[in-house]
Structure formats: structure tokens, C-alpha cells
DNA sequence: ATTTGACTTCAAGTCGACTTGAACTCCTAG
DNA sequence: CTAGGAGTTCAAGTCGACTTGAAGTCAAAT
């Protein structure tokens, strides 16, 4: 109803606004993330503000790792209209959980990495004359085998 | 020197302990993340505790998205020994930054997703009789074209 | 003595999400 | 009137990181 739906956008403009490339936009349409997009007389795609808004949602879902088939399913449900909210909720909730887990895992990795960064940073300001550094940081040594002759039980 | 380096582990045991599959372990060796692993008389790989520790570092770097070539470079530097700490630092610091950015992005996506989850949750407890729900959540509507005839400037 | 299970190598296949290429159509500007 | 730029389709290619398959070796258990 609002004038906003009357604004006609070319694929290039949508690309500029969403950050998705034009091939990606066509690909998303083909994959059913978007319903078949309107065409003008010349057969070119005509997008609306509503499309852009929806594409931004899709982009967020994708960038947080939701697989295309799952986004397609969600899009289908939304398009179907009222009555399937439980499944939509389920999809989003599951994804939220996964992303939360992902954040947690990354933060754990981050703390390991940060610890190493700190160690190197301290070493570098201390300079090469650092006495506690003879063989590099305790934390981090690619094993090499010069002084080891253990065998695996000959099995 | 410690006894810990004398413990001999089979590829299966290392797999169990690191969570990396045996093909992945061979692949990592081949890719130079690990120096060529010792073999016993039968030609089988013999890993040490030190290998496991290093593999755990690699696994953290990988799971946080560091590409194999970069991990290989880092491994090479560590193996090379003292004198290249500045580059090691650089690699880790850059990666830390990327991961930090990734976390930030995920958290932003998370807030969008969580908002939607909340909307659906509220709708579902309110039940179908919800009056403000005629056409689904404002936030989230796959545009369909039934009532729109805007054209792209015939270009 | 043979079967089992864990290991070996090497090559080839898989996966998802795009990206790229080739060939074509339009419209506008010079 | 032709050159450019943006669009179109369809098919094929790319990427990284593994995974899988085929074929073989070896040592212990039945």
C-alpha cells in the first residue's frame, strides 16, 4: 500500500544496496529464496523495497551460516502465510542456538589465540635478549624428532 | 626430555584424542602442518604427546577459520626456531582480529535472529487468536506481487 | 591358516555457494 | 549507426578442506 512498494529497482541497484552480487541475486531467485521476481517489458527484473528488505534478512541468515535449503524452507513458510508459525519459530530457534554455539566456540578459540598473541607481544617488547625464551614459547613448538626414539609397540 | 615425549601413540589414538579423523591427520602431515611423522618398523606413524598438543593448536586455528596455508606458514616459522617471532606475532594478531570481527558479525546476526524468535514466541503463546497478526509479522514477509504493478522505467 | 582390524598409499570424489564464461538482447549516447 | 553498458540465460568452473575408494601390508586372534 505504501509508496515504498512502488519503487522499482534494477538488479544493479539491489546489488549495490544489499551487497549481494547480481549473479548471487539471480541465483537466490532461482533457488527459491525469493519468489519469481517481476519483469518489465524487456524481460528485466524489477525489484521493490520489500524485496530489498527480505534480501537483507536472507543475507543475515546466510552470513550467520544458515544453509540455503533451510532459508528456502523458511521463505516458503512465510510465503504460505499464517498457520505455520510454529515451524518458522522452530527453524529460527534452532539456528539461533547454532549461532550461539558458534560464538561460544569462536570465543574459546579467541582466548587461546589471544594468549599466544600476548606471549609474543611481551617477548617482542622484551627484545631478543629475553632469557626465558631459549627454545621459544612453551606453548607452541612444532615437535621435531631430533632427540627422540620412542617406538610404537611394534604393532 | 620429559617422559611425555616417549609415549608412542598410533594414528587412531591421536584421532580419538584430537577429534580429527585419521585421514585428516594424514592430510595435515602431507600439507606440512606437522613435520613428517616418525614411523615404526612397519611403516606406521608414531605420534607423541607433543604432536597431540600441536595438533590441538592447529585444530583451534582451523576451527576459528584460519586457512591451511597460513597455519602451514606459522608451523614453518615455529619449526625454524627463534628469530622470526615478529612474523609469528603478525600472523596470530591478524587472525585474532579476523576472529574478533567474525564474533561481532555473528552477534549482530544473532540479535536480528533473536528478535524474530521473540516475536514468534510471543505470537505462539498468544495463540492463533492474536489480533495484531493478520498478515504475519511486519518484520518478515516474502514479497509477493499480487497487488503491485510498478515497472522499471522501461529501460 | 585365515580372518580381522588397524594401518598404509594414491587418486578421485564431494560439498555448498557462488562465480565465470559465452552468447545474446536492449536502450541510450555520441 | 555503432559502441557501450546493463541486463538476460544456461552451462560450466572454482574453492578449500576434507572424504572416500581401491588395493595393499602387517600382526594378533580364532
Automatic annotation (TrEMBL), chains A, B:
InterPro entries found in the cross-reference section: DNA-bd_dom_put_sf (IPR009061), MerR-type_HTH_dom (IPR000551), MerR_fam (IPR047057)
Chain segments annotated as transmembrane? none
List the Gene3D superfamilies hit by this protein, alphabetically: 1.10.1660.10
Checking SUPFAM superfamilies in the record gives: Putative DNA-binding domain
**Does the UniProt entry include the keyword Nucleus?**
no
Q: Does the keyword DNA-binding apply?
A: yes
Which SMART domains does the UniProt record give?
HTH_MERR
> Which part of the chain is the HTH merR-type domain?
8-77
What keywords sit in the KW lines? DNA-binding
Name the source's superkingdom.
Answer: Bacteria
PROSITE patterns attached here? HTH_MERR_1, HTH_MERR_2
By what name is this protein known? MerR family transcriptional regulator
Q: Which species is the source of this protein?
A: Actinoallomurus spadix
Amino acid at each position: 500500500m505504501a509508496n515504498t512498494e512502488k519503487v522499482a529497482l534494477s538488479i544493479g541497484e539491489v546489488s549495490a544496496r544489499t551487497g549481494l552480487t547480481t549473479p548471487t541475486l539471480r541465483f537466490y531467485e532461482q533457488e527459491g529464496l525469493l519468489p519469481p521476481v517481476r519483469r518489465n517489458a524487456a524481460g528485466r527484473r524489477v525489484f521493490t523495497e520489500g524485496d530489498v528488505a527480505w534480501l537483507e534478512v536472507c543475507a543475515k541468515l546466510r552470513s550467520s551460516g544458515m544453509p540455503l535449503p533451510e532459508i528456502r524452507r523458511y521463505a516458503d513458510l512465510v510465503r504460505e502465510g499464517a498457520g505455520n508459525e510454529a515451524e518458522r519459530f522452530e527453524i529460527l530457534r534452532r539456528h539461533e542456538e547454532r549461532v550461539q554455539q558458534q560464538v561460544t566456540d569462536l570465543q574459546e578459540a579467541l582466548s587461546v589465540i589471544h594468549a599466544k598473541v600476548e606471549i609474543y607481544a611481551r617477548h617482542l617488547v622484551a627484545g631478543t635478549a629475553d632469557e626465558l625464551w631459549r627454545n621459544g614459547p612453551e606453548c607452541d613448538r612444532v615437535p621435531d624428532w631430533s632427540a627422540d626414539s620412542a617406538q610404537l609397540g611394534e604393532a
